[in-house]
Structure prediction request, 151 residues.
Amino acid sequence: MRLASPVAGTVRALDAVPDVVFAQGMVGPGVAVEPVRTAVQHVVSPVDGVVAALHPHAFAIRVSDERSVLVHLGIDTVTLAGAGFEPHVAAGQQVRAGERIVTWSPLDVAAGGHATICPVIALQAVPEDVHLLLEPGETVAAGQPLLDWVD
Prediction:
């Protein structure tokens, strides 16, 4: 299964995320993207699936009973209580890879003192099954292939 980048930005290793839960892979393996700091950025689904969970700052897409992908927009952004995030889908909705899920402002989030880095996590995967398609430091466009999740 191929996962696309949900945002445009720079690929970062998961251990670069300033949150121990993500950095140590406690939630699952994956990668992070430091988004381009624009006033408006559209976040897209990394895969085809069903919106299993939706918060203004994070969402999970269920691909199958065995696979879900989590996208978290920034770190500690839950404290913003949704301010600056505009969801475009609802929980339970079928989505396609590349479909707009949320609009946000990485520029505003950074101005508020929050890290804007976006972890992309393969929730039920083991690290050996997740392969980066781009190296940390490379730039990626929203919708561009980012990870392969094999089994």
Q: What stands out?
A: The chain has one domain: 2-149. The domain at 2-149 is CATH 2.70.70.10 (Glucose Permease (Domain IIA)). Helices lie at 20-23, 106-111. DSSP finds two helices and 14 strands in the chain.
